[in-house]
Amino acid sequence: MIIDGNELEKAAMEAFHRGDRMEGLKLQEEFASQFREEYQDKDHCPCQKACRYHGNCKECVAIHRAHQEHVPNCMRPMLNKKIKLLSELTEHTISNEISAPKEILRK
Ligand code: SF4
């Protein structure tokens, strides 16, 4: 089961967008049920950092909500995809004005 960009969950969102809430909820629960089953004993967290909160979404999200600097690692590819589209508006010249912090660049 692939979590990121999951087709079942995308279908759920399509249902919500066309106003079919019941179908959206049904598909969403199907996704959640598959997730529960498959990741019962498997690591679902894609974060590569050595971190004591690895896979503990409740505490990981609370930490990020608390410091408000950035989002958890697993959400970055999704956000970067959307930021990349916006960045095209200025031919990515924002890249001349920014650099990743040391924490990100470490091996
Ligand atoms: S919220 Fe945190 S712990 Fe959960 S999958 Fe994302 S990075 Fe991992």
Describe what you observe in this structure.
The structure is a single chain. The chain is mostly helical. The protein has five helices and no strands. The protein has helices spanning 7-17, 21-38, 57-67, 76-87, 102-105. The longest helix has 18 residues, at 21-38. The protein is globular and about 45 Å long. The two termini are 29 Å apart. Bound molecules: iron/sulfur cluster. Iron/sulfur cluster is lined by residues 45, 47, 53, 55-57, 60-61, 72-74.
Rg, alpha carbons:
17 Å
Listed once per kind, the bound small molecules are: iron/sulfur cluster
Main β-sheet description: none
* Helix coverage percent: 40-55%
- Note the run of SSEs as H and E: HHHHH
**Terminal Cα separation, in Å?**
29 Å
Q: Quick one: how many beta strands?
A: 0
User: Tell me, what's the shape?
Assistant: globular
In round numbers, the mean pLDDT is: 95
- Low-pLDDT runs of 5+ residues are none
Specify the structural class. Answer: mainly alpha
The total count of helices amounts to: 5
| Beta-strand residue percentage | under 5%
How would you concisely characterize the structure shown here?
With about 110 residues, the chain is mainly alpha-helical. Helices cover about 50% and strands about 0% of the residues.
What labels would you give this structure?
107 residues, single chain, binds iron/sulfur cluster, mainly alpha, globular, 0% strand
Topology:
Layout: H1 7-17, H2 21-38, H3 57-67, H4 76-87, H5 102-105
